[in-house]
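[Q] Does anyone have a clean structure-token version of this?
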Amino acid sequence: MALDFFAAEASAGAPVLSVSQLLRGVRDLLERRYPLQWIAGEISNLRPAASGHLYFTLKDEQAQVDCVMFRSRASALDWEPADGLRVEARALVSLYEPRGRFQLNVETMRRAGLGPLYERFLRLRRKLEAEGLFDPAGKRALPAYPRQIGVVTSPAAAALQDVLTTLARRNASIPVVVYPAPVQGEGAAAKLAQALAAANARAECDVLLLVRGGGSIEDLWQFNEEALARAIRASGIPVVVGVGHETDVTIADFAADERAPTPTAAAERVSPPREALLARLAEHAGRLARETARRIEYAMQAVDGLARRLVHPAERLRASSQHLGHLALRLAAAMRLEFERSAARLDLAGRSLAGLSPTAVLARGYSITRDASGALLRDAASVKEGERLRTTLARGELESEVTRKR
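[A] Here you go.
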């Protein structure tokens, strides 16, 4: 062992090691003794850094170890690490020399329990993605107003009841057809693919829902089978997949024309609310009625125009004369109204001007006081005792002598 080597060298009179030399030797020993390998544990004390690196502790019931996952590795994860998650980390056992701290340098990480199944999932996803099976350009738009909705699932699944309840609540007038197939267990993927093919052969629905409730990765695995993914893409009817909970992701989700986080959300996505449809229908009905009335009015005006062309010249002259008389009366009335408005504005202006007149102010009980030189007084401090003042009232004037000021 390297540590035995260090001890032997020291005993032979070798130079004393510095701390950095010791730690570098220990680090080399650890990295040679424990190359990259999978280590299972639970994430705790997760601390994402601004640099993009992840720092956390990996622990089990009896021990824990510090871990670092550098940004280039962390950015490759297609799931979000969090405290409490059980994971399997492929890591290099190492030593952080500046602090002499034992740590794991994590290269990659997967959620515990996924293991081989998760690896199969990733391999199939990469394969189908490379084929273009998940290309957004190949996905079809969902119908805005489906005439009939198909549901592919197990008749015994709780998800079916959730979907039927949601569809009935939102719009009970849309018929629903159930295409039964098992959603779990060996061979379920093939049965689901057959149900999709049957729905397409019958061609009675405008959109199909492929749904099931939540479960473990093993429970949901049939939705990760290649045969089902290809059946979804081969469907001539748009397919919405709602499998498990929002965090559950399957190959069927990638293949679907649209993914819903839950079966209930899938039902909501394809069923326009009845109230919204009625409101839209009322809006269209009102618009149609208005357009119809407008066209009738235009036709009536056109008929009136043609009728006027058939009027006798003498009758047209009489009508023109009568119209001229009406215009004259309207002109006289307009002139009289304008005169009355002008008189009212003039009266208002006169009253406003009178209200601003100094005599009007005096009439309300105010007075104007001047000193002997005739200057207006505004401040008692500007006069002296004994000085004579002249006060103008609304009627007449007063002369007074200042005996005291305050």
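[Q] Thanks! Anything notable?
[A] The longest strand covers residues 37-48.
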